[in-house]
Amino acid sequence: MRPRRIHITGAAGSGTTTLGRALTAETGALHLDTDDVYWLPTDPPFREKRPIPDRLALLEEGFGRADHWVLSGSLLGWGDPLIPQFDLVVFLLIPPALRMQRLRDRELDRYGAEALAPGGAMHVTYQAFLDWAEAYDSGARVSRNLQAHEAWLSRLPCPVLRIEGDTTVEDRVRRVLAVRVREGQAWRG
To answer: Angle 72-13-50 (CA atoms, 0-180°, nearest 5)?
Structure first.
């Protein structure tokens, strides 16, 4: 059978949210995103972290609303109590230069060139975010990095589907939907 409880993870800019939305459009599953529970609502956004117990409670509440769900984003460092609920974890890994360009484009769309330019209202925050995101691949200076993700993935009791490279959203959806799960094991359909 197809997995009913899917967690999609990877570095910022790897396409976890995009794939989550595409999978839910294709399957009718509920989509949840870790950014929606990780951060308290602020203006501008992404300023204050929600306490871990509250994040976990919000996700548990979301999981309880549907038999089929897709969770996109990273739980690294705080979400281990949720691991037993996953039927499948999808790990997205794309070339660092492409990932960083996607992030620059996304932030430009989100905030505008004026706010991100030197002296702009979001410039300092934007530069700090890019520095943090770029450190993912080298493992330097940040706890959410490729090495930590690989170690976390290696400990999961459920199947892990790795999707590497610059693939289309349609190809990623097809690959996820081709996975079949039986008694905690995955095999290709």
So the answer is: 55
CA distance readout (Å), 47 to 42, 125, 145: 7, 9, 20
Residue of 184, 169, 158 whose CA lies nearest to 92: 169
Of 43, 52, 34, 11, nearest in space to 149 by CA? 11
β-sheet with 5-10: strand ranges across:
30-33, 69-72, 5-10, 88-93, 160-164
Distances (CA, A) of 116 to 97, 105, 125: 19, 11, 9
Question: Is residue 45's pLDDT more than 60?
Answer: yes
* First and final C-alpha spacing in the chain: 9
In this predicted structure, what is the pLDDT of residue 189? Answer: 35
Instruction: Please indicate, yes or no, whether the overall pTM of this predicted structure exceeds 0.70.
Output: yes
**Helical (H) or strand (E) element with 42:** none
Phi-psi region of 31 (alpha: psi -120 to 50; beta: other; left: phi over 0): beta
Cα–Cα distance measured from residue 140 to residue 129, given in angstroms and rounded to the nearest whole number: 14
pLDDT value for 178: 94
Residue entry with tokens 């330019």: 117
* Per-residue model confidence as pLDDT tens digits over 66-113: 999 999 999 998 999 999 999 999 999 999 999 999 999 999 999 999
